[in-house]
Specification:
A three-stranded mixed β-sheet has the order 1-2-3. Helices cover 60% and strands 15% of the residues. It is built from five helices and three strands; from the N terminus they run αααββααβ. 10% of the residues are buried. It has one domain: 2-Layer Sandwich (GMP Synthetase, Chain A, domain 3), CATH 3.30.300. With 93 residues, it is of the alpha+beta class.
Length: 93
């Protein structure tokens, strides 16, 4: 049996279980303001990741339009922040 650090063991457990989506949901909320800026974060009501799709909710019409236009940049920024391909699509609600 190989030796693992506690961190490696936890990462393996999370990756193999259904906890991964829950962990990603918490992490996306933590990095959203850093990645998108304070103004966008302030007017974004909900963000969540389901099966590599990022769902963004806002009631501000101008922000919805801007987010729709920036989908490729949002995907790139989020994936860079996580250091892996976490999202492949963005849905603005």
């Amino acid at each position: 049996m190989g030796e693992y650090s506690i961190g490696d063991a936890l990462k393996n457990m999370i990756n193999k279980s259904n906890l991964r989506n829950g962990v990603r949901a918490v992490q996306i909320e933590e990095v959203w303001e850093t990645v998108m800026g304070k103004t966008i974060a302030k007017y974004t009501e909900k963000i969540k990741i389901i099966n590599q799709t990022l769902f963004i909710s806002t009631n501000v019409g101008a922000l919805k339009s801007e987010l729709m236009y920036q989908k490729p940049q949002i995907i790139k920024r989020i994936n860079e922040a996580f250091g892996e391909n976490v999202i492949s699509q963005v849905v603005v609600e």
